[in-house]
Amino acid sequence: MAKKIRNFSILTLIVCALIGISYYIYNTYLEIDISGEYEIVRTESTIPVETVENIEQQSQTIADVLEEVSQSVVGISRIKSHSNSIFSSSGSVQELGLGTGIIVSSNGYILSNCHVTGETLATCYVTLENGYTYEGSVVWCDVDLDLSITKIDASNLPYATIGNSSNIKSGQTVYAIGNPIGYEFRKTITSGIISALNRTIRIEENNQVSYMTDLIQTDASINPGNSGGPLITPSGEVIGVNTVKITSAEGIGFAVPINVVQPVIENFVTKNSFDEAFLGIYAYDKDVVPYMVTSPNFSSGIYVVHISENSPAISSGIQVGDIITSVDGHSVNNMIELKEYIYTKRPGDTVSIDVSRGYITRSFDIVLANR
Questions:
Q1: Residues 213 and 295 in one domain
Q2: Would residue 107 be called left, alpha or beta, if left means φ above 0 and alpha means ψ between -120 and 50 degrees?
Q3: Residues 278-324: pLDDT tens digits?
Q4: Known catalytic residue at 349
Q5: Which domain CATH number covers 306?
């Protein structure tokens, strides 16, 4: 009997202890302050979640960008079509020599290739996205760069955004827009990457050899008719002008970096004119050296291969074979850098050019002429 009473007492104590502990825990929980700020911290995630919907929205954004840029891409022909548009299927587009151009201002300046539009003062025909064709006059052309600017009498045009080609890198995604082959494939968009920078290609035409240097190489498809079209980033900025492809290989196309022509575009857009300063020097960078019969040895600068007659440089003292290292203190390592700097000058300006001639370094002051 005593044993039963003792067991009952122990059980009663245990039950009372459990009740006391439960009561303490309950009251302690009620005193905990769960603030709204604490809940926000707990529920907010800093890890991005890629859902199918996010990916679709991103793709749609790129598609919208490309569609918008396409509005500034035009067709260019050097022969007038019998129809209202060079995109008309009723005419022979093959005979028209259809090429591409980029509207770079709302008042009708169009960037393209010289071999598409013709040289300065030539006439070409430009068809806009709406199908209307304008007669265009080539107001500027640089044959060495294969770039030209054409003016049409139009206003309120959609125009492309010019990017910065000095910031681009190999492996970067790019898109090309143009009019390959003919009418059936107008406004074609192709995608790829920047395969390499500062490429040099050898061109043989009319028994003459020349080189195009400092080009952007891309595997975005560039075909006949794409010439003069834009090479653009996913954000819609033009970083190059498509110019040529290697016909003996697939996926090797080239574009001229946009920075070299930016000063020219800005002058035409703001002043409706461009007084081109003329130096009269053509030079190759070290990447062209392997193509030359006599290979000069230099690690930086550009090698002078030609000085134009009746140019400011012909009487300056600079000679063929000199290596230009800087202009006005700015280092120069390719011809595009030299041209880009000279394009910022005006006829009558003086530039100081440093050259290396063997073991001798000399400086020449040259007054730029009017092109």
A1: no
A2: alpha
A3: 999 999 888 777 776 566 778 889 999 899 998 999 989 999 999 99
A4: no
A5: 2.30.42.10
